[in-house]
Amino acid sequence: MNYTSIKDIDSLSDWVFDAIKIKKNPLKNKKLGKNKTLGLLFFNPSLRTRLSTQKAAQNLGMNIMVMNFTNEGWTLEFEEGAIMNSGASEHIKEAAKVVSQYCDIIAIRAFAELKNKDVDNSEMVLNGFLKYASVPIVNMESATGHPLQSLADAITMQEYKTKHKPKVVLSWAPHPKALPQAVVNSFIEMMQLQEANFVITHPKGYELNPEIVKNSNVEYNQDKAFENADFIYAKNWSNYNDYGEITNSDPNWTITAKKMQLTNKAKFMHCLPVRRNVIVSDEVLDSENSIVIEQANNRTYAAQLVLQKILENEK
Ligand code: AN0
Ligand code: CP
Fold first, then answer.
1. For the chain, what percent of residues have pLDDT higher than 90?
2. Residue 43 Cα, ligand 1 centroid: separation in angstroms?
3. Which atom of ligand 2 is nearest to the CA of 50?
4. Do residue 92 and residue 106 come from a single domain?
5. 39 belongs to a structural domain
6. How far apart are the CA of 267 and the centre of ligand 2, in A?
7. Global pTM?
8. Are 92 and 78 in contact (CB under 8 A)?
9. Which of 58, 134, 185, 228 lies at 20 to 30 Å from 164 by C-alpha?
């Protein structure tokens, strides 16, 4: 069993229920991971993913090895038949097979490079490990998805929702650096698995991959989208059509207290890290309706559920 996409969730409601059970008694399965090793491979920075996944593995009694390819590992080659006479020192074929001998589960973070849409959509790094590793693979944010984040988001919404079918608004917000679409892709796929009044709002031109958005509701007027919302989920992404470009940095899209007044006292969510007073104003982030810290806390239980399912599956 791998966990590489929201599509690996067979029943979102069961998974959310099980994660909340784990949260109540996180050390219950302390023996399940005894003598098993989790390898965490990072091709990009992280705070939450690194620590919450490590914590989740510790709660299951696993051993953990972390490696940062940005400054520690050899530069890897992914192309079949490459003549390796330039930058890369080692091919994914050897690297994935070697790491599989040391680890029982491999978790990988490899962001979109935002240079070439086809390369990013091909999920070169994640698929390279899926192809050549001989142990289960967990996605800690790949080029096109961040399914551990979205599982934590689903848990958080379940904890805070006050009605069966809340209005959930995913809002684009400005950001000075080009960011991937991974977080929102998985968020949308996760929302499509549950009953909600789900609305995506973004400036014209910031349309996401239609294969992911499908028939989800898109409203270009942010104020209109915010009306009566129960959850506001803010996130920047760079332009998908003008791939990886920043074509809009309109500060009117920043989430402010005034905008939150349009909502039904909505809870504010963001995956973090967040740029204060660019994505969201201090007032909103520091308000009691902001649930970003609890959202980050739930990363541990999302990861623990995934690791537990994999360990039980491999028994
Ligand atoms: C990353 C992104 O937008 O994909 C990671 C978010 C979890 N964010 C930044 O690089 C700021
Ligand atoms: N939300 C999230 O994945 O945070 P990190 O990039 O800090 O891991």
1. 98
2. 13
3. 8
4. yes
5. yes
6. 20
7. 0.98
8. yes
9. 185
Give the pLDDT confidence of 140-194 residue by residue, as tens digits. Answer: 999 999 999 999 999 999 999 999 999 999 999 999 999 999 999 999 999 999 9
Residue 1 lies in a domain: no
95 shares a domain with 47: yes
The answer to whether 270 and 233 have CB atoms below 8 angstroms apart is: yes
Total tally of structural domains belonging to the chain: 2
The verdict on 41 and 131 lying in the same domain is yes
Q: How far is the CA of 179 from the centre of ligand 1 (A)?
A: 6
Determine the angle formed by the axes of helices 147-160 and 48-59, rounding to 10 degrees: 80
- The HSE-up count of residue 115 (CA atoms within 13 Å, CB side) is 2
How far apart (Å, rounded) are the C-alpha atoms in residues 259 and 276?
16
What are the pLDDT digits (tens) for 36-72?
999 999 999 999 999 999 999 999 999 999 999 988 8
Q: Using an 8 Å Cβ cutoff, are 253 and 174 in contact?
A: yes
The verdict on 213 and 79 lying in the same domain is no
* Structural domain of 175: 149-295
